[in-house]
Write a structure and sequence with these properties.
The structure holds 2 protein chains of 2 kinds. Chain A has helices at residues 3-23, 28-33, 38-58, 61-65. By secondary structure, chain A is mainly α. Chain B has helices at residues 3-26, 32-37, 44-55, 59-71, 74-84, 87-103, 108-115, 119-151, 158-208, 211-221, 236-247, 249-252, 254-257, 266-297, 307-312, 319-356, 362-386, 389-402, 406-414, 420-440, 449-467, 472-486. The chains are: A mainly alpha, B mainly alpha.
């Protein structure tokens, strides 16, 4: 994947994830489909996924220091 | 709780922090960059701890616990979306760090002024930061004053608590600049997290017999607190209105974005980012559990922000734990205030004073910067003692007001067409709208001030840019440099 496509991929992924974090727990369908702990688990999983994604993205930063 | 015990604990804390600050001063260089940025040589762990201590204020164990008490699990969503705002650092962190080194920028607002080739941009954005961050800092001191007054049963007067916090903050900052702030922040971050985790474990096991039992009781007695909008506080308008401005904190708050200039390398910045994320995730969960505990143990509080002080006064919490929590909350507030004071001093010195006195030597600039440290502390102290309604309004408006910097910052790195006139329009009009809406309490279409200030500043930045002439040569040079540095290493 070219660098430009990578930038677009991560930007789009983050926008989708963050919009989902804003909207999904508030929807009646989400409340119907999940247990009473749905929102608590959803936001925790969201945060863990964000942390993992940032771990992947920032892994490249160490390469800059080796120049 | 005995007032003399609290005074003694705070005094010992001040002594330990002062020893660290004095030691940090020995490692301080003599230049402006050394004093305000630690010479851009911070290691990843210290950078992560100072980033965490600066970002997380007394709001967490008082305000966020109060939000949870009042509105339930929506507070968790608010705070974790705020934490996820670090995704912006994935894109802007390396860029800010690179241009900071290349052009020797001291402040994010200096960077804006240079990128848009306008002194006015630097001056106006620095003044906007002062307008919003002084009341925000004052609220931190008000929080400590109220907390100490509350847990001592009035034996420690409000003004004494505010004064103690201000003296600690200014002494550590003045003693050793950023190095002292970063090292004492590290102590304070360690105290904040350790105390918070231990105390919440203690309360959960003493109060409920374990985490599972706490959630079982919540489900049985307050099931609405586990859903959104739940009891009603976190309706979608309030949730978006509170969360959206804070999502951009890593760019909009200069005391936070300035920290992107400080790590000694990008690999150390990576440690800073990942360390902060882990710290923030744990600290958020602890604050939420704290609020849930208060909801179950103290269901009839009239003021949600009283949840933490009230919890500390329960029989199940030993005095030693309560004192440690008080210390943790004070540490959170002081570590935020001293970082803001240092950043504001650097901004006013570099972006305002030096723009009017071009021939200023580095030695004189540093002297002026140091003079502004006690000066800002006095301003913040004066604001805190006034306890005006306007302070609360401006403090709450701070996230919405500072949000108006974001379009200009994004444009600086990703849009050649951005202009100085557009930056000025977006900051002045957007900031004015945020303050007016917050103070009047008028929310058009039900949207909160942060949503309006974000929309208006973005619209103005794009619209005015298209009607005015950009600094083409600077934009070309600035963005080409970043491409040359980032692209070969495939850094996004």
């Amino acid at each position: 994947m070219t660098l430009k496509k990578q930038r677009i991929f991560w930007a789009v992924l983050f926008v989708i994830m963050i919009l989902a974090a804003f909207i999904i727990p508030f929807t009646p369908l989400f409340r119907d489909l999940t247990s009473v702990y749905g929102a608590f688990l959803f936001w925790n999983i969201f945060a863990i996924v964000v942390i993992v994604c940032l771990g992947i993205i920032t892994a490249k930063w160490g390469d800059y220091d080796e120049r | 709780m005995n007032a003399s015990t609290i005074y003694l604990v705070l005094f010992l804390y001040f002594i330990v922090g002062s020893i660290i600050a004095r030691y940090a001063r020995k490692k301080l260089g003599s230049g402006v960059n050394d004093f305000f940025l630690g010479g851009r040589t911070l290691g990843g762990i210290i950078a992560a701890l100072t980033y965490s201590a600066t970002t997380y204020s007394a709001f967490m164990l008082v305000g966020l616990a109060g939000f949870t008490y009042l509105g339930g699990v929506g507070a968790l969503g608010f705070e974790l979306i705020y934490l996820s705002g670090l995704v912006l650092v994935a894109f802007f962190g390396p860029r800010l760090w690179l241009v900071g080194k290349r052009y020797n920028y001291l402040t994010p607002t200096e960077m804006l002024g240079d990128r848009y080739q306008s002194k006015k941009v630097a001056i106006v954005s620095a003044i906007a930061a002062v307008i919003f961050l002084i009341p925000y800092s004052a609220v931190q001191l008000i929080g400590i004053g109220a907390l100490l007054e509350g847990i001592s049963g009035g034996a420690i007067p409000f003004l004494a608590g505010v004064g103690i916090a201000a003296v600690i903050a200014v002494y550590w900052t003045f003693t050793g600049g950023l190095k002292a702030v970063a090292w004492t922040d590290s102590l304070q971050a360690a105290v904040m997290l350790t105390v918070a985790v231990l105390s919440v474990i203690f309360i959960i096991y003493n109060g409920f017999g374990g985490l599972g039992n706490m959630f079982a009781q919540l489900e049985a007695r307050y099931p609405a607190w586990l859903t959104v909008p739940g009891p009603g506080f976190f309706n979608i308008h309030a949730f978006v209105g509170l969360t959206l401005p804070w999502f951009f904190f890593s760019l909009s708050n200069p005391q936070v974005s300035q920290r992107l200039f400080m790590p000694r390398s990008l690999s150390q910045m990576r440690i800073m980012v990942m360390g902060f994320l882990i710290f923030g995730f744990i600290y958020t969960l602890v604050s939420i559990f704290w609020g849930f505990s208060a909801r179950l143990l103290l269901p009839d509080l009239e003021v949600a922000d009283a949840a933490t002080p009230a919890l500390l006064s329960l029989d199940i919490v030993p005095v030693s734990i309560a004192i440690l929590v008080m210390l943790g909350i004070s540490a959170a507030a002081i570590s935020t205030v001293n970082s803001i004071i240092l950043t504001l001093a650097s901004m006013v010195t570099r972006d305002v004073f030096k723009n009017f006195r071009k021939d200023t030597s580095e030695k004189r600039e540093l002297l002026v910067g140091k003079i502004f440290i006690p000066l800002f502390t006095v301003f913040i102290l004066a604001f805190a003692t006034l306890r005006l309604d306007l302070i609360a309004a401006l403090s709450v408006a701070s996230s919405a007001g500072l949000l108006v910097m974001v379009p200009a910052l994004i444009g600086a790195f990703f849009w050649k067409r951005g202009t100085a006139a557009a930056v000025l329009a977006s900051i002045i009009i957007g900031g004015g709208i945020a303050t007016a809406l917050q103070y009047s309490g008028y929310y058009p279409l039900g949207l909160w001030p942060g949503v309006w200030s974000g929309l208006v500043s973005t619209f103005l930045f794009i619209g005015v840019s298209l009607l005015t002439r950009p600094p083409e040569h600077k934009a070309e040079e600035f963005l080409n440099y970043l491409q040359e540095e980032l692209n070969p290493k495939k850094i996004i």
